[in-house]
Design brief:
With about 525 residues, the chain is an alpha/beta fold. The protein is built from 15 helices and 18 strands.
Length: about 525
């Protein structure tokens, strides 16, 4: 029986984010302490509140290593998260920790604590570190208490994963397997280039695919630099940027401009984002990239506005025309799949999805989202769990109700985006989806897939969910078929989930199986979830 535990809290690298979010972390830890006190478990917080910084987070890899040097590596440890955190702050220490590890988050959408914990879980899984994981709204529910007691008694927690089964080609409908396998063989033969504008965004160790795992799929990295992107932005003329902006205005995008660049979106910031969009396409064209990812955090954030508007445009087949400096149009009538935050697992997924959906005669516009939050909601008299899928602006307008005319661009939160820039915000349209996640486990690529729906919620409920998370970002009301909240959290090895639309459930199921067959043929160990 565990009677003493260490507690650590990994945080952001950005001081304003840590300061703004500290109160939520303090409240969460207070609630957790009350529960552990009742169970007669003594908690040793492994690092103090820093009065000068105004928070008590581990805020760098350097600090994390220093903290873990002073800990007994054999004692149990809880990593408690109520905010977005950089996994590499604690990863080094956790890789050599011998005692039981528990990652834990509060079920609250205010700050991305659930997102941060899932990223840490994915990073630990990739690193081969054994851990347990738990989540709760207030740490008093039976699910949490039973799980906590199990961990205190045995040092591990067993979750229900009955929704997961290995892909079996014999279960597939129609000619889905033949279609997927044929596509994959051609994909591997033709090969593709993944343009990476710097790796390791925000300490996301789980988002970096080692070359020896990536190359067998037929994808090879072109390692580019964000400094190169910034330099290319400076060669885009004001006239070219104005043309992109006018195209968006003609489409009906609502830019919520103000005058104070410190707190409001300005027209100048939007024009700079238009230059980034054109520069990214020109560099992708120059290097033959089939998909690209821009890190932005860290580095580019200190030079340029947010990348999110550009990312959303790149992910949309219908996008502003872009030309080389010589006048040749770049990828006319096609998207350039972009993987937000240089999540290479999402990049692999995104490119395969876009091209496979084309073969199936479907729209392949797709995006990743954070698994930010979720609550039950009554739809047609039935109570269902509706996820808040939310991302900082990389979702394509084709996913939104009314498309571009239903989209707005609002200034990104200053604590994350000092130099401003807007998102591409909208409400995802109701419909059927295929969801997926590529991740790394046991030095092998894996992929989980399933199907679901995007629900239509009343405007006031959508607004409530926006206000309790990040209202500047695009939202998707996700309902996953055959997968409960706790099953999803227990299995998912990433902060991101990939989503793409299908015309109806039958097509979604067929496309899901075709994608599973393609992933399997590419050498990726594939599992179906909930179907």
């Amino acid at each position: 029986m565990i009677k003493e535990v260490y507690l650590v809290a990994s945080g952001d690298l950005r001081l304003p984010a840590n300061q703004t979010c500290w109160q939520a972390q303090e409240d969460m830890e207070s609630s957790l302490h009350q529960v552990l006190d009742k169970l007669e478990v003594k908690v040793h917080r492994a690092h103090p509140f820093d009065k000068e910084k105004g928070h008590g987070f581990i805020d760098s890899q350097k600090m994390g290593m220093q903290v873990f040097r002073d800990l007994d590596p054999h004692k149990p440890i809880i990593v408690a998260e109520s905010v977005w955190q950089y996994s590499h702050h604690v990863l080094a220490g956790l890789t050599t920790h011998k005692g039981p590890i528990l990652t834990l988050a509060n079920w609250n959408g205010q700050w991305p604590g659930l997102v941060g914990m899932l990223n840490l879980n994915g990073s630990l899984t990739k690193a081969g570190v054994t851990y347990s994981t738990l989540w709760s709204r207030d740490f008093t529910d039976d699910f949490f208490l039973n799980g906590l007691r199990e961990w205190l008694h045995s040092g591990k927690i067993t979750h229900d994963l009955g929704h997961v089964r290995d892909f079996d080609p014999n279960d597939a409908p129609g000619n889905a397997v033949e279609t997927g396998e044929k596509f994959a063989r051609a994909f591997k033969k033709e090969k593709a280039i993944m343009g990476v504008f710097d790796e390791g965004c925000m300490g996301m160790f789980n988002a970096i695919i080692p070359d020896h795992l990536l190359h067998p799929t037929g994808i090879f990295k072109e390692r580019l630099s964000q400094s190169g992107l910034y330099a290319a932005m400076r060669t885009v003329t004001d006239k070219e940027a104005e043309a992109v902006l006018q195209w968006l205005l003609d489409k009906g995008v609502d830019f919520q401009w103000g005058n104070d660049p410190e707190t409001e979106l300005t027209r100048e910031q939007t024009l700079e984002q238009c230059k980034m969009y054109l520069a990214a396409l020109r560099l992708a064209d120059e290097f033959g990239c089939d998909t690209i990812g821009i890190q932005y955090q860290q580095g580019l954030k200190d030079l340029a506005v947010a990348s999110d508007l550009a990312e959303g445009l790149l992910n949309n087949t219908d996008r502003p025309p872009a030309h080389t400096q010589e006048g040749r149009e770049i990828l006319p009538g096609r998207a350039l799949p972009h993987f937000n935050e240089v999540d290479e697992c999402a990049g692999l997924d995104s490119l395969i999805t876009y091209r496979l959906w084309e073969k199936l005669g479907l729209s392949g516009d797709n995006t990743l989202h954070d698994l930010r939050y979720g609550e039950d909601f009554t739809i047609d008299g039935e109570e269902v769990f509706v996820w808040v899928f939310l991302i900082s602006g990389a979702a394509p307008a084709s996913h939104f109700i009314k498309g571009y005319s239903g989209a707005s661009s609002e200034r990104q939160p200053p604590m994350y985006f000092r130099l401003g820039g807007g998102s591409l915000k909208g409400i995802s349209k109701p419909g059927h989806i295929v969801w997926s996640r590529v991740y790394i486990m046991n030095d092998h690529l894996h992929c989980d897939l399933g199907i679901g729906k995007v629900a239509a919620l009343p405007p006031e409920e959508t607004q409530r969910r926006w206000e309790m998370t990040t209202p500047q970002w695009p939202i998707m009301h996700g309902v996953l078929e055959g997968v409960s909240r706790d099953q999803m959290m227990a299995r998912h090895k990433a902060n991101h989930i990939q989503v793409v639309y299908a015309p109806d459930r039958e097509k979604a199921l067929e496309a899901c199986y075709a994608k599973a067959a393609a992933m399997n043929e590419l050498g990726i160990k594939t599992a179906l979830c909930g179907i």
